[in-house]
Amino acid sequence: MELIRIRTLAGAGVPLLRVRERLAAGDEEFAAAVEDIDRRLRAEIRERQRYRERIGQLTASDSRCVIVVYGSPDNLTPGLAPLRRNHLARPGDSQLDFAR
After folding, report:
1. Where are the beta strands (DSSP E) in the chain?
2. 3-state class of 59 per DSSP?
3. Res 91: pLDDT
């Protein structure tokens, strides 16, 4: 049973020097340490999920900006010129499918 605790604590990122301290702690102190480890792991998971989302945005095919045009589609073409100069839009991007 102690080996399982050692491996679990070490796998959760507790330094091996601290594992012995955690195992020697009383029940309440051990429970508090486990709660602290759990909080830290949850924070790391949230941070990694945010990074996964950001990485996904880098590779998404729709990572370029989206322009919403109100009124006539003809209003869109002049607005694309600066985007094309900065390589943010390509020729043909003004081809929109307007469902009415």
Report:
1. none
2. helix
3. 54
Enumerate the domain spans of the chain.
Answer: 2-62, 64-95
Residue 39 scores a pLDDT above 90: yes
Task: Answer for the pair 23, 2: CB distance below 8 angstroms, yes or no.
Answer: yes
How far apart, in whole angstroms, are the C-alpha atoms of residue 98 and residue 100? 6
In this prediction, residue 54 has a pLDDT band, given cuts at 50, 70 and 90, of confident
Q: Which are the contacts of 19, defined by CB distance < 8 A and separation ≥ 6? A: 6, 9, 10
- 58-62 CB contacts, 8 Å cutoff, 24+ apart: none
In this prediction the pTM is 0.51
C-beta separation of 67 from 76 below 8 A: yes
